[in-house]
Amino acid sequence: MFKDDFHIFRNKVQQYSDKFDTMTEEATKNAIIMPFLVLLGYDVFDPEEIIPEYTCDVAGKKGEKIDYVILHDGEPTVLIEAKRAGLKLQKQQQGQLYRYFSTNRCRLAVLTNGITYSFFSDINAPNVMDDEPFLSFNILEDDEELFLSSLEQFHKSVFNVKDILTKAVFLKYLKVVEQTLRSDLINPSDELVKYFLSRPEIKTGNRITAQMIDKHRAATKEAMLKVMGAVISVDAAPTEQVPQSGTGVNDIISSLPAGNEYRASDVYGVTNIQVVRDGKAIGRLRVSTYHGKPRYDYTELGGSGKLHFLTGVDECEKYLDPAYT
User: Whole-prediction pTM value?
Assistant: First the structure.
C-alpha cells in the first residue's frame, strides 16, 4: 500500500535529520532522492526508467545536465533537479530548472532537497515552466493527507500526464481561491466590495464610487469574518462523536506525563509540541485535525528518528513518561 511505503520512507529520512546540514548533494541523492524514486515504483538502475545526469542543452550553452529524468515508453516525462538536504529551497533555485524545462517535451518538473518537494508544470503557457508550483510539501512537517493522493499519481503503476495536469489545474485554482480569501479577510479588495454593493438587495441608488467602496470596506470585512468563522466552525465539526474538550494546547499539555518540558506552537491549526528533558529535545508531538478528528503523531529525536502514529493523546505515555523511557 502506497501510504505504508511512504511511512517507511519518511521514517528513514527522519533518521538523517541531525545530518541534514552537513549532507552534500550527492549524499542527499543517494540517501533520500533515489529511495524517493523507488517509493514511486521506479527502478533507479534501469536506464529505461530513470536517467541520471540527463542532458538538457540550453541555447548557447552545451553540456547542461539535470539530475534525473523519469521516462515512460522511452520518452522523458518528469525532470528532477536535486539540491542538498540542508539547503532551503527558494525562488533562486528554480532558475536552473526553469531553463531546462523549455529544452524538452516534459510537462512536469520537480525541485527537491529530499525533504521539501515542489512540483511544476506549464499551465500558464506551453513549454514555459510556471513561476509557482502546483504542489509543494515538506514530508517531515506537513500533514500527509494534504498531499499524499497527489503524490501517488506520480507512481509508475498509475502515471498519466493528462490526469496529473488535470489535478494540477484544480490545485492551482484551489490555491488562488485560498490566497484570495485570506487576502480579502484581512483587507477586502475593491472588486469584492463593489460586487456586494452592486447586489440588487443593496439599493445604493447611485453609481458606485471609490468613496463608497472605502466607506463599506470595514463592514464587508466584518461580515466576511463573521460568515467565514461560521463556515470554518461547521467544517471543523467532527463527523463522529469526538470530545470537544481537552483538545486545546493547554489541555493537551496538561494531560501529558510529568517530568518533561513542553514547548508548544500553533500554526494554521496544527499544534507542534517539542518535548524537552534535561535541557535536550527528545521528541516532537504533532496534533492536527482531519475531517473533524484529532490526529496525533510523535517523532523521536536525537537517535532513531522513528515516527509513531497514535490513536490518542493517552498513548503518548509510553513514549514520554520518564518511567517508561
Answer: 0.66
